[in-house]
Backbone:
C-alpha cells in the first residue's frame, strides 16, 4: 500500500516536472446536428494556439489544446467540464450552446478555471456566472432588442409569428425579441415552440399559412430554421424568415438551397471585414477553412486570455480575472475589454441577409 | 375546411413514412416474437445509401430524374437489405434458442453499434440534399389560403399504398408468405413439415430492411436533411405505430403509422406544436388501456 502510494506520488511529481506546458481547452458540439459550429470553434482555437506557440508561447510556456465534445447537451457539457478539470485545464474557450455553457460554468467557477465563451449569448451566462465567466459575443437581450425593434418597425400592422426550440438559447432569444417587439408597440399573431431535432414542420407551416403570417422570427439553430424555410416554400408560403446568430454557417444554405434567399439574421459585425484580421483570414482560406461565424471569435477569446495572462504574470485565477476586467485587448475582433459582469465592450448586433449562398450586411 | 385538408395531407405523408418503417417491426415481431430495436438504424442506413447513390449517379453525369431515382431506390434497397440480413445473422440467430431477453439486448446493442458506425464512417454533421422533385398542385384556394399537394407528397403516399397492396398479396398468395405465416403460428411444427425456418426468418429481415430503405429514401427526398441520429426518433415513432395498430399485424402497422402521423399533424395544427409528441403517446396509452393488443392485433393465445 505504502509502496504504491509512493510510486503514485513519484509519477505525479515526474509528470509535473515534465509538463511545463499550459493546457487550455475549447468545447462545443463536435458531433450532433450542430457539429458545424463545433468545427468552427475547433478551427479557431487550434489556429490561435498554433500562432501563439509560434510566437514563443505565453510567458515562455507552450500552450496545449484539449477539445471537448458536449453535443450541445447540458448533461454532457457538465461531464466535459469535469473531464477538463481532471486534465488540469486553466482556461476554457467555450462552450457554444448557452444551454451547455451555463451548467458547465458552475464547474469552472468552482474549480477556478477561466471561461470565455465565444458564442453563448444567453444573458444568464454572465448575469449568474462567477467572476471567471466571460464572453466575447453579445447578449440576447441586445440581440432581441435589435430584432424586436426591427420587426416592430418593418412589420407594423402585419402579422408576425415567433417560434423557439425550447433551449436556453432559442427560448431566451425568442422571448427577448418578443418583449422588445411588444415594448415598441408591435404584437404577435402566433407564438409556438418546437422540439430541437424535429424534421417535420409541415403542420406548423400550414398554421402560419392559415394565420397569414408575414414575418416569422425563429429563436433556434440553423438546422431547424433551414427546414422551416424549406417547408414554407414547399407549401407556397412567401413568409419572411428572421432569426439570430445561430444561422452563421454555410450549412444553413446547404439545407435551404434557394429557399434561404433573403433570410435575415442578426449577428455581431463580421470580424472577417476587420483590416486587422485580414492576414489571418488569408491564412485560414489558404488552408481551405472559411473563417465564418465563430471561428474568429474563438481565436479572439484565446488571444484575450493569453494577453491577460501575460499582463498578470501568471495563470493564477484571481490575477487573470483582474487582468481581464481591467485591460483592453487587441485581438482579431478589434480592441475590446470586459465589463464587471464579464460581457464584452464591443459593438452589438447588426442585420445580415442571406443571398446566393453567402451572408452579408443587410443593405 | 381548407386548413383541415392541408393538415390531412401533412399527416398522411408523415404517417406513410412511419407506416413503412413500422412494417419492419411488426413482421419481425410476428415471426420471432422479438422487437428489432435496430430497425430504426436500418432505416437511417437506407437514407445514407440513397444519398451516396445519388452522389455517385450524378457524378457520372446522368440527369434524367426518374432514372436517378430508380438507381437510388435499387441501390439503397439492395445494400440495406444486405445490412438487414447481416444484422439478423450476426446478432439474432445465435441467440434464437436463448432466453427471451437476450436478442432484445442484442438488438439494442446493434442499434448503438450501427449509429456509431455511421457516425464514424460518414461524420457527425448533417448531410443535405437539394430538392430533386419540387413543385406541386394547388387543390383548393380560399381567401388567399391555398391547399398545396406537392409531387413529393403524392409520390410518398402513392408509393406507400402500392407497396402495402403488393406486400399484402405477397403474404397471402406467395409461397414465401405461406412459410412466413406457418413460422408465425408454430416454428417447430413448420420446421418439421419442411419449411426452411432460417431462410424464412432471414427473408423477413431482408424484406423489412428493403421497406425501411424505401422509407429512408423518401425521408431523404422529402426533408433533404439526414444525420446518423434520424433512426432513433423515426424508429421510436414507427415502433409506437406498430404497437398502436397491434404488433404482429401488417394492416395494423400501416394504420398505426397513419394515425400517429395524423395525430401529430392535427394536434400541432389545432392545439400547439409544443406537445404533439405528448399527444401521440397519450393516445397510445389510452388505446393500450382499452385494447391491450392494439387496434387490429389478435389476442395472443398461450400455447400449451
Residues:
Amino acid at each position: 500500500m505504502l509502496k504504491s502510494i509512493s510510486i503514485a506520488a513519484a509519477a505525479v511529481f515526474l509528470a509535473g516536472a515534465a509538463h511545463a506546458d499550459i493546457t487550455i481547452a475549447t468545447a462545443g458540439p463536435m458531433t450532433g446536428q450542430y457539429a458545424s459550429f463545433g468545427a468552427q470553434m475547433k478551427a479557431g482555437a487550434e489556429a490561435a494556439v498554433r500562432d501563439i506557440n509560434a510566437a514563443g508561447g505565453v510567458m515562455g510556456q507552450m500552450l496545449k489544446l484539449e477539445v471537448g465534445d458536449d453535443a450541445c447537451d447540458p448533461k454532457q457539457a457538465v461531464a466535459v467540464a469535469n473531464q477538463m478539470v481532471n486534465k488540469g485545464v486553466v482556461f476554457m474557450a467555450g462552450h457554444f450552446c448557452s444551454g451547455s455553457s451555463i451548467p458547465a460554468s458552475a464547474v469552472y467557477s468552482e474549480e477556478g478555471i477561466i471561461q470565455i465563451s465565444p458564442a453563448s449569448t444567453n444573458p444568464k451566462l454572465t448575469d449568474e456566472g462567477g467572476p471567471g465567466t466571460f464572453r466575447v459575443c453579445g447578449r440576447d437581450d441586445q440581440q432581441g432588442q435589435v430584432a424586436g425593434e426591427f420587426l416592430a418597425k418593418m412589420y407594423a400592422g402585419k402579422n408576425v409569428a415567433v417560434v423557439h426550440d425550447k433551449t436556453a438559447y432559442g427560448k431566451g432569444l425568442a422571448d427577448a425579441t418578443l418583449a422588445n417587439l411588444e415594448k415598441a408597440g408591435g404584437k404577435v399573431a402566433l407564438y409556438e415552440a418546437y422540439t430541437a431535432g424535429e424534421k417535420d414542420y409541415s403542420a406548423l407551416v400550414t398554421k402560419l399559412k392559415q394565420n397569414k403570417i408575414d414575418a416569422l422570427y425563429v429563436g433556434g439553430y440553423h438546422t431547424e430554421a433551414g427546414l422551416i424555410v424549406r417547408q414554407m416554400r414547399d407549401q407556397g408560403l412567401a413568409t419572411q424568415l428572421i432569426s439570430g446568430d445561430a444561422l452563421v454557417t454555410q450549412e444553413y444554405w446547404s439545407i435551404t438551397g434557394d429557399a434561404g434567399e433573403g433570410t435575415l439574421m442578426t449577428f455581431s459585425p463580421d470580424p472577417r471585414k476587420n483590416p486587422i484580421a485580414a492576414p489571418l483570414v488569408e491564412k485560414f482560406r489558404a488552408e481551405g477553412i472559411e473563417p465564418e461565424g465563430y471561428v474568429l471569435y474563438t481565436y479572439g477569446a484565446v488571444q484575450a486570455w493569453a494577453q491577460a495572462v501575460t499582463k498578470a504574470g501568471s495563470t493564477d485565477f484571481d490575477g487573470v480575472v483582474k487582468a481581464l476586467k481591467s485591460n483592453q485587448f487587441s485581438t482579431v475582433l478589434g480592441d475590446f475589454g470586459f465589463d464587471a459582469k464579464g460581457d464584452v465592450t464591443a459593438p452589438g448586433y447588426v442585420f445580415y441577409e442571406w443571398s446566393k449562398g453567402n451572408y452579408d450586411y443587410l443593405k | 375546411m381548407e386548413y383541415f385538408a392541408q393538415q390531412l395531407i401533412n399527416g398522411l405523408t408523415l404517417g406513410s413514412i412511419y407506416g413503412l418503417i413500422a412494417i419492419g417491426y411488426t413482421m419481425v415481431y410476428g415471426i420471432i416474437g422479438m422487437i428489432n430495436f435496430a430497425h430504426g438504424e436500418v432505416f437511417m442506413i437506407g437514407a445514407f445509401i440513397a444519398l451516396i447513390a445519388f452522389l455517385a449517379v450524378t457524378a457520372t453525369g446522368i440527369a434524367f430524374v426518374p432514372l436517378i431515382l430508380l438507381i437510388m431506390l435499387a441501390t439503397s434497397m439492395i445494400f440495406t437489405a444486405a445490412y438487414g440480413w447481416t444484422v439478423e445473422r450476426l446478432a439474432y440467430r445465435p441467440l434464437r434458442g436463448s432466453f427471451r431477453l437476450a436478442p432484445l439486448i442484442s438488438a439494442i446493442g446493434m442499434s448503438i453499434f450501427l449509429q456509431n458506425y455511421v457516425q464514424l464512417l460518414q461524420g457527425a454533421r448533417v448531410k443535405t440534399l437539394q430538392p430533386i422533385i419540387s413543385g406541386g398542385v394547388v387543390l383548393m384556394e380560399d381567401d388567399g389560403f391555398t391547399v398545396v399537394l406537392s409531387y413529393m407528397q403524392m409520390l410518398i403516399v402513392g408509393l406507400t399504398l402500392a407497396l402495402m397492396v403488393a406486400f399484402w398479396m405477397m403474404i397471402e398468395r406467395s409461397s414465401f408468405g405461406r412459410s412466413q405465416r406457418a413460422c408465425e403460428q408454430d416454428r417447430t411444427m413448420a420446421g418439421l413439415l419442411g419449411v426452411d425456418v432460417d431462410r424464412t426468418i432471414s427473408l423477413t429481415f431482408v424484406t423489412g430492411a428493403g421497406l425501411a430503405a424505401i422509407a429512408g429514401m423518401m425521408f431523404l427526398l422529402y426533408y433533404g436533411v439526414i444525420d446518423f441520429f434520424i433512426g432513433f426518433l423515426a424508429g421510436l415513432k414507427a415502433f409506437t405505430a406498430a404497437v398502436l395498430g397491434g404488433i404482429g399485424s401488417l394492416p395494423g402497422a400501416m394504420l398505426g403509422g397513419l394515425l400517429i402521423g395524423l395525430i401529430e399533424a392535427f394536434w400541432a395544427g389545432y392545439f400547439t406544436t409544443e406537445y404533439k409528441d405528448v399527444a401521440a403517446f397519450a393516445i397510445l396509452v389510452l388505446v393500450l388501456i382499452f385494447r391491450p393488443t392494439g387496434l387490429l392485433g389478435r389476442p395472443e393465445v398461450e400455447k400449451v
